[in-house]
């Protein structure tokens, strides 16, 4: 894809002069008897390009690379969709219009509330009801064809899972870990009556007197894990701030830290519930993770294989843009 095309798509978003009907209607690709235009690409990438422009506004080279990848991906997806729609049409499949009526009703219930709101929204987008209905029909066909031709939950044998674990053991290597609970009391510089250090010492005394650490965390902690009783589960040293990690990894299972005060005035209490040395995660612990990864890989393979079969019996051309 040449730079001129990438810049043109970017100009669509910024609203510059290149946004003309002539350019929008220019053909980007042909798939059998269907054409893909600049307008089709713009409709797919406009919002994403706006996001990229905000994210990489000071990195023009990176921005162009990201836009290039985005446009290429979306053109390929548009080509794939036209291949699938053509397959549906030529294979003699039939889609009752009642199915589309149901899709419209679902769309109204989930997005527009009522038909009048739908009509106003379509008018604001410059869409006719017929164009909207066609869009829903194509969406339904694409979803049905994918489900019919590419298994959503392909089978993965236990042997293949075990073999993957053996061949990729380094992926499942973990460093020293501790099972940690933590109470976080953040500083409030504008609240002179509040002292995180004083409060944390009071909490520490209650815990030493028998109050459950998890209960104290749910009541007092301002950390993101407060609702879970301050439970961080198993964490590696790199997950924690250096000063906290240094203390956490010197505690033994069952040990409670003293009050830990940070330079900004925040205070922490930690309870180590378990510890384990660096190790390879055992297969039972990662079986589900491996199975999910292999299923995703197999789905991707089957998807590519099906699309290639459709390509092989179709006319597909993506035009260079000068």
Q: What would the keywords be for this entry?
A:
322 residues; 56% helix; 13% strand; 9 strands; four-stranded antiparallel sheet; Chitinase A, domain 3
Tell me what you see in this structure.
The protein has 322 residues and is an alpha+beta fold. 56% of the residues lie in helices and 13% in strands. It folds into 3 domains: 3-86, no CATH class; 97-149, no CATH class; 176-277, Chitinase A, domain 3 (Roll), CATH 3.10.50.40. The chain has helices at 3-14, 21-24, 38-55, 60-90, 97-112, 115-124, 129-149, 158-167, 196-208, 213-220, 242-248, 283-312; strands at 27-31, 34-37, 173-174, 177-185, 231-236, 260-261, 267-276, 279-280, 316-318. The strands form 3 sheets. A 4-stranded antiparallel sheet has the order 5-4-7-6, with helices on one face. Strands 2-1-9 form a 3-stranded antiparallel sheet. Strands 3-8 form a two-stranded antiparallel ribbon. Helix 1 packs across helix 4, helix 4 (60-90) packs across helix 7 (129-149) and helix 8 (158-167) crosses helix 12.
């Amino acid at each position: 894809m040449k730079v001129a095309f990438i810049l043109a798509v970017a100009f669509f978003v910024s609203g510059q002069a290149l946004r003309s009907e002539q350019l929008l209607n220019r053909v980007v690709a042909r798939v059998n008897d269907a054409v893909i235009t600049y307008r089709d690409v713009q409709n797919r990438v406009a919002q994403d390009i706006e996001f990229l422009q905000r994210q990489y506004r000071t990195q023009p080279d990176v921005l162009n690379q990201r836009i290039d990848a985005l446009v290429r991906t979306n053109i390929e997806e548009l080509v794939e969709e036209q291949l699938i729609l053509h397959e549906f049409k030529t294979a003699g499949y039939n889609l009752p219009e009642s199915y589309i009526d149901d899709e419209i009703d679902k769309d109204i219930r989930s997005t527009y509330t009522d038909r009048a709101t739908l009509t106003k929204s379509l008018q604001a987008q410059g869409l006719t009801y017929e164009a909207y209905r066609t869009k829903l029909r194509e969406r339904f066909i694409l979803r049905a064809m994918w489900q019919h031709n590419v298994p959503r939950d392909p089978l993965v044998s236990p042997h293949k899972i075990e073999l993957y674990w053996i061949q990729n053991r380094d992926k499942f290597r973990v460093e020293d870990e501790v099972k940690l609970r933590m109470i976080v009391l953040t500083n409030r510089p504008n609240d002179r009556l509040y002292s995180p250090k004083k409060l944390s010492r009071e909490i520490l005394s209650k815990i030493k007197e028998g109050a459950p650490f998890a209960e104290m965390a749910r009541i007092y902690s301002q950390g993101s894990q407060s609702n879970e009783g301050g439970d961080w589960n198993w964490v590696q040293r790199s997950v924690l701030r250096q000063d906290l990690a240094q203390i956490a990894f010197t505690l033994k299972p069952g040990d409670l830290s003293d009050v830990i005060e940070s330079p900004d005035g925040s205070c922490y209490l930690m309870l180590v519930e378990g510890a384990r040395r660096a190790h390879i995660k055992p297969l039972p612990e990662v079986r589900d993770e491996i199975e999910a990864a292999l299923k995703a890989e197999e789905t991707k393979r089957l998807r590519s294989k099906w699309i290639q079969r459709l390509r092989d019996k179709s006319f597909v051309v993506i035009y260079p843009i000068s």
